[in-house]
Amino acid sequence: MEKGVMKADAGMNDLAWNVVGHTYVPKFLTEETFVWHATIPDGTFVPPHIHPTQDEWIYILDGELEIEFPDDHCKAGSGDTIKMPRGIAHGIFNRSGKTATCIFGVSPARDLYKLFTELDGVRDPQELVRLSALREVNFLPLSNAD
C-alpha cells in the first residue's frame, strides 16, 4: 500500500467499472482487503450470491439498500453498516426511489478486483454468472419474486 490521499473523485489506476448497472470505483487494494465506492441507482440490484472465501461489508453514505439473506430481510440507510459473512447467501437491492452511495469492502481481497475488471460492461447474465464463478463468487438462481 502506498501512503497518501486518494481524492474523492479518483479511483485506483483511474478506473471506474459498470457492474450490474452500478458504478464501482476501486479505492484500496491489498492482499488482505479490497475497498470500493459504489453508486447504486434505484431499481438495480446484485442478485443473490455467495462469497465462500470472503467476508463482505457495506457502509452506506447516502440512500437506502435492502439486503436479503436466506432467512432475513434487512433495510439499511445512511450511516448503517451491513455485514455479510463468508458462506452466507445475500442479495443487494435498491428499491428506495433514489440513488444510494456506499463503500464496500471484502476481506481477504482474493480475486474480486480482477473480477470487476472482467465484468465491466458485461450485460449477458449467463456470462456474468460464469465469470463470477471463476473468481469465487457464486450466484444463486433468482426466484420469481425478484
Tell me what the structure shows:
It contains 2 helices and 11 strands; from the N terminus they run ββββββββββααβ. The strands form 2 sheets. It has a 6-stranded antiparallel β-sheet with strand order 1-2-3-10-5-8, with helices on one face. By secondary structure, the protein is mainly beta. A hairpin with a 4-residue loop joins β2 and β3. It has a single domain, classed as Jelly Rolls. It has helices at residues 112-119, 125-134; strands spanning 17-19, 22-29, 34-40, 45-50, 55-62, 64-69, 72-77, 81-84, 90-93, 100-107, 138-139. The longest helix has 10 residues, at 125-134. Helices cover 12% and strands 42% of the residues.
What descriptors fit this protein?
single chain, 146 residues, mainly beta, Jelly Rolls, 6-stranded antiparallel β-sheet, 5-stranded antiparallel β-sheet, 2 helices, 12% helix
